[in-house]
Design goal:
The complex is a heterodimer. Chain A is mainly alpha-helical. Chain A contains 16 helices and 3 strands. In chain A, 47% of the residues are buried. By secondary structure, chain B is mostly helical. Chain B has one domain. The chains are: A mainly alpha, B mainly alpha. The interface between A and B is large, with 67 and 42 residues.
Chain lengths: 302, 54
């Protein structure tokens, strides 16, 4: 299953970055596919990007909402949020595990041999702040003299944008190097921090900063496809703990917002069929059937 | 007991369909207001300041 997931990650990354004419055009793809939402975080200013980034588009719409309304255009982000919501309602953070190019990059970096560290769980809540403030409120509220806001997350934070768009555009258009300054070096530093952190810890960006992951996490109880915990089969062996790339202790918090449904716990760790995959409540794997009812620990102690 | 467990395992959850329908309607409203062309207009341009250049 892990190999299947890796292939799906690679294929998705190639599909959302499928325009390879940029060495000749020296700019971004400008075709009609750009109305399609990228399920994962993928900068639409990447020269190869064929889809739009939901976080970038949402900020653009928030930043320009005043001007749009003044011009009689009711652009509130309904199309973008609607698309994100459909993806979130269907898959939730499964997308982070299966269809995010930046998630794939972090996974590959984590394979580099080094001492590994955990990430404090409190940092997981930061990403909700980034979603609320940097993607929605600041672009909406802080505006220039013309009434246009800034794309706070893209401009000041997003390491995916630096990697996929900033650096490639500098290579494609060397003249742009004369315009880079503190802003670019700040973003480059953020990218380097996350590259190093990704070698030392599993998926740090997904866990601490990613606003798209935060949005999808809101669907943890409502998503169509999710993992199910069969308590009757669980032996509390905790084999599911160390395999989780997101630091979830599945048998203790099966509805954890951090779960990216990578299926490692179900496929690699659990030998007792205590974890199954379900769609809308219906099991789709042979696992998860209730086996022998086990005595509770308190009963066993007696 | 077995029947009860079976019922628990196989109960269809309606909530995801309601959520997807809600966002589908939201997206359709977005399409009706012409937001798609706005998204396309933004996505085909390189916003240099947005990627830390300029």
């Amino acid at each position: 299953m892990e190999i299947v997931r890796k292939w799906i990650q690679v294929i998705t990354a190639l599909l959302v970055n499928g325009s390879w004419s940029f060495p000749f055009t020296r700019t971004v793809y400008q075709g009609p596919l750009k109305v399609v939402c990228s399920p994962g975080l993928n900068c639409y200013s990447c020269p190869a990007a064929t889809t739009y980034c939901p976080i970038g588009s949402l900020q653009q719409l928030m930043a320009g909402i005043r001007i749009a309304l003044e011009n009689g255009q009711n652009f509130f982000g309904l199309y973008v949020v609607g698309t994100m919501g459909i993806l979130g309602g269907a898959f939730g953070r499964l997308i982070c595990g299966w269809a995010c190019p930046f998630g794939l990059m972090q996974e590959l970096l984590y394979k580099i041999p080094s001492r590994k560290f955990s990430i404090p769980r409190k940092l997981n809540y930061l990403k909700y702040g980034f979603l609320l403030f940097f993607v929605i409120l600041l672009p909406l509220a802080v505006v220039d003299d013309f009434g246009y806001g800034e794309l706070w997350f893209c401009k000041y934070i997003c390491p995916a944008g630096t990697l996929e768009a900033g650096l490639p555009m500098l290579m494609l258009q060397p003249a742009l190097s004369q315009t880079i300054g503190l802003l670019f070096f700040n973003k480059l530093a953020i990218l380097i921090v996350f590259i190093i952190w990704s070698i030392l810890a599993s998926r740090p960006f997904c866990r601490t900063i990613c606003p798209l992951g935060a949005f999808y996490a809101l669907f943890k109880n409502l998503k169509l496809v999710k993992l199910k915990f069969i308590e009757e089969n669980c032996t509390r062996c905790e084999a599911c703990h160390p395999v989780c790339p997101m630091g979830v202790k599945f048998n203790e918090s099966p509805e954890d917002a951090e779960c990216i449904s990578c299926l490692k716990c179900m496929d690699k760790a659990c030998k007792f069929d205590a974890i199954s995959l379900e769609i809308a409540g219906l099991p789709v794997s042979s696992r998860g059937r209730i086996r022998i009812p086990r005595p509770k620990q308190s009963d066993a102690a007696m | 007991m077995a029947a009860e467990n079976e019922k628990n395992v196989n109960r269809v959850r309606i909530a995801p369909f309601v959520v997807i329908l809600f966002f589908l309607i939201m997206g359709i409203f977005g399409i009706m207001t012409g937001e798609v062309s706005r998204v396309l207009e933004q996505a085909v341009q390189v916003c240099l300041s947005c990627i830390g250049i300029g």
